[in-house]
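Lay summary. Proteins are chains of building blocks that fold into shapes, and those shapes determine what they do. In this project we predict the shape from the chain. Here is one chain we studied, written as its sequence of building blocks.
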Amino acid sequence: MLVDTHCHLDYHDFEADRAEVVARATEQGVTRIIIPATDARSGAASQTLAEAYPGIYFAAGIHPNSTAGYTPDQLGPIEALAQHPRCVAIGEIGLDYYRDSSPKADQHRALKEHLNLAARLGKPVILHNRESSDDLLAILEQWVKGLPESLRARPGVLHSFSGSMEAAQKGLALGFYLGFTGPITFKNAEETRRIAAMVPLDRLLVETDAPFLAPQPHRGKRNEPGYVRLVAERIAALRNMPDAEFFAQTTHNAERLFGL
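And here is the predicted shape, written in a compact code that computers can read:
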């Protein structure tokens, strides 16, 4: 059994064959898929899919690249989505200094308000981080201090982790899980593989981020949730673990973090 803890199944890339994609994932042992939102509209589409497929759950939030001009009233639709019984997290939220799609002030404001919402609702967060580790971790350090013990033990996941060993250690010290995606299979990902090999086994998640970041041998093509098995197999090999044992552990981790 596997859980793809981050798959944008609502994207147009899957419009023509979404049911077949889900069926292929099931054939690969993927029993559950979590769809993170990028804005309120994406969250609503993800909710519809979660209601249509028994193994699908979703998260509600505004992606940092969609936060330009953010105002507090934008949080209302997110909070409404988050009340749904199949909404298991607040996300995809975070910071992105690479794309420059949104001013840093807007990104920070949106992130902090989403974090406050997550604390209020008792839901973990799914975090995007691109070239923003120092600022993101500083904000998270302050946030976790005020969390109730129940959420402090499972505050969220640093999704598609590709940061430094130092950032990984800081995130783990704050209680976060680390999620790994297709690039773990790329030739030039030695540092990411080194980090994946050292993460405590009970704090590790596998993801696709489909339709992006397809693993080898599908690199450059559309990614899909069934390929999470290739990510899991690569990390299991890194850790010298039988596939079945590693799959079961990451599934248990996902169940614990997201209350599946």
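What the prediction tells us: Residues 79 and 117 are 7 Å apart (CA to CA).
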